[in-house]
Design brief:
mainly alpha, elongated
């Protein structure tokens, strides 16, 4: 596995939680983390009537939203133009959605670490194969 592979696993996890784990073959973890992060993100949005992902209305929470890149982009595209009629419970909704973004940071670190360990395990095998071929 190349040195760029751990970064790719972390980047894919930023795009879609769990995708980096799927890349390194951890499909169970991928499904678990996808369900956890995206589920928490959607529950947070539901508490705020699907109007909490807004950089202008909630600039400080938005810092945490950015760490869940794909879900945040989807939320901005689908709900960004909705007018705020009433904020049902914006504080709890913003908090849960922000926690999902911050949780995704840990998922990215886990995907990076797993990919890095796989690269370290595969490095001696690749060197041995190259030596035998020469």
């Amino acid at each position: 596995m190349s040195a760029a592979r751990p970064f790719l696993a972390a980047f894919l996890t930023w795009i879609c939680p769990g995708l980096g784990h799927a890349l390194v073959g951890r499909r169970g973890k991928a499904l678990y983390f996808f369900s956890l992060v995206v589920g928490l993100f959607v529950v947070g949005m539901a508490f705020a009537d699907f109007r909490n992902v807004s950089f202008s209305r909630h600039p400080y929470f938005s810092i945490a939203y950015v760490f869940a890149g794909g879900p945040t982009a989807v939320a901005l595209l689908t709900t960004g133009s909705l007018a705020v009629v009433t904020d049902m419970n914006p504080d709890l909704g913003c908090l849960l959605t922000a926690v999902a973004g911050l949780l995704n940071v840990l998922v990215m670190i886990d995907a990076y670490t797993i990919a890095e360990d796989a690269a370290d395990r595969d490095a001696p095998k690749a060197a041995e194969t190259r030596a035998e071929a020469a």
